[in-house]
Each structure stands twice: as structure tokens, then as C-alpha cells.
Specification:
With about 240 residues, the chain is an alpha/beta fold. About 30% of the residues lie in helices and about 30% in strands. The protein has a single domain, classed as Bira Bifunctional Protein, Domain 2 (BirA Bifunctional Protein, domain 2, 2-Layer Sandwich), CATH 3.30.930. Strands 1, 2, 6, 7, 8, 9, 10, 11 and 12 form a nine-stranded mixed beta sheet that branches.
Length: about 240
């Protein structure tokens, strides 16, 4: 079992390109696991954490409802956005510049075999990161992701989550609003939940921008502690510890 994590900071990249890249890593881990089982091998399976930003895009999970996208195909083109139906859980969400998207592609058999624990640890990573900025991130009963002011009329979501898992291998992940243009959320019902606002880190801190690199460093720090993982150091990876 390997708890080594290969970190990739991919910059601003097209959603479909990274989806296909995720899928290739995901399938490779499944193939290694299959070979281990069939041939009685003991090859270690790799684990990855991808950080990326996407151009404006709306994605709909397999349990989602298309009516939660509130604009037409023509309007999508007008605002330079794309739309994809994808194979994660959850409803509709938005990705765009200024948002840190994280895709952990893990073999959970290297860590623990509990999907609920996995989601809770991802949420805890966000909560701990927000706490470093003086914000109290919270879980909202029955809703994934991380929120502020839960249980009040001012509840607002700052981080969305949606994952896929097969044979304990994960893909997709979380999207933390850091310097996000929140106007793009007006074109959908976020995660299919009406009457809930969204927010971003820079808005909450009253700043024009927040350092995305600093946020990623904090996210990675907490991820490594929570998952008891270590970083695989490689050349050209901008994040290292």
C-alpha cells in the first residue's frame, strides 16, 4: 500500500481535457488493481491530487436535473461558457477562473475503504483551510460541500463537491470559490438547491483578490495530515513540501 501523493498543478485548462486526463489516471489505477488480483501481484497503485482552474463551464452530475441550468445554449455561447453531463454524483455546478478545483484520484484501499469518511475528510480539509483565514466553514445536513452561516437566513456555499468511485478508486472532487465571478452562479440553481446563496473567499475577506497559490498550499498541507499521506516530489511540480 502506498500513501504517496503525486501533486499536479495544471493551471487554467479546458474542462473536457482534464476530465479525460482524470479518466486516464483513474483507469490506469483500476488496471493495476485488476492485474494484482488476476496475477497475484503486489504492485503499488499511485495516488494523485490535481489542482486546476477551468474556463467558464457548467457540469451536471448523473443524478442532476437539466432544468437547474437556467440559460439556453445560445446564452451559454454568449457568456463564453460550456456545458457537460458528467459521471460524478450530485447535481449542477459551475467552474470558472478564480476557483480552485481539486481532483483527488486515489486508491482508497491505500488509506481506508469508506466513501463517507472520504467526503467528510475533503470537507474537513476545506474547513481547516477557511479557519486559517478566520472563517467558520460548516457542513450542512443532507448537503455536501462546505458552507458559511449554516442554519441562518444568510447561509451560503463556498465549496461544492461531487465524486465518483469504482472499486475504491476516486475521481472528480471539490471546487473552492477563491476569486470567483459569482455572477455566473445566477445562471443555475447551485447543486439543485433553491434559495441558497454562494460566496467566495475574496468576498468574505473583503479583498479584491486572495493568493490562489497560498490557498493551494494550505489545502495540500491539511490534505496530507488528514489522509496521512506524503508528497511524491517530481520536477516541474510547483507545489512541494
Amino acid at each position: 500500500m502506498s500513501k504517496t501523493l503525486d501533486i499536479m498543478d495544471l493551471g487554467l485548462r479546458d474542462y473536457k481535457e482534464i476530465w479525460e486526463f482524470q479518466e486516464s489516471l483513474f483507469q490506469n489505477i483500476l488496471q493495476i488493481k485488476s492485474a494484482n488480483k488476476k496475477e497475484n501481484l503486489e504492485q503499488d497503485t499511485p495516488n494523485y491530487l490535481l489542482f486546476v482552474e477551468h474556463p467558464h463551464v457548467y457540469t451536471l452530475g448523473k443524478s442532476g436535473h437539466i432544468e437547474n441550468l437556467l440559460i439556453s445554449e445560445e446564452k451559454l455561447k454568449a457568456i463564453n461558457a460550456t456545458f457537460y453531463k458528467i459521471n460524478r454524483g450530485g447535481d449542477i455546478t459551475y467552474h470558472g477562473p478564480g476557483q480552485i478545483v481539486g481532483y483527488p484520484i486515489l486508491d482508497l484501499e491505500n488509506f481506508f475503504t469508506d466513501i463517507h469518511k472520504y467526503l467528510r475528510l475533503l470537507e474537513e480539509m476545506i474547513i481547516l483551510t477557511l479557519a486559517e483565514y478566520g472563517l467558520k466553514g460548516e457542513r450542512s445536513k443532507g448537503e455536501t460541500g462546505v458552507w458559511l452561516d449554516v442554519g441562518t437566513p444568510f447561509a451560503r456555499k463556498i465549496c461544492a463537491m461531487g465524486v465518483r468511485a469504482s472499486r475504491w478508486v476516486t475521481m472528480h472532487g471539490f471546487a473552492l470559490n477563491v476569486n470567483t465571478n459569482l455572477g455566473y452562479f445566477d445562471n443555475m440553481i447551485p447543486c439543485g438547491i433553491k434559495d441558497k446563496a454562494v460566496t467566495s473567499l475574496n468576498v468574505e475577506l473583503g479583498k479584491a483578490t486572495v493568493s490562489a497559490e497560498e490557498v493551494k498550499e494550505k489545502l495540500l498541507k491539511h490534505f496530507l495530515v488528514l489522509f496521512e499521506a506524503e508528497v511524491k516530489l517530481q520536477e516541474n511540480h510547483p507545489i512541494s513540501f
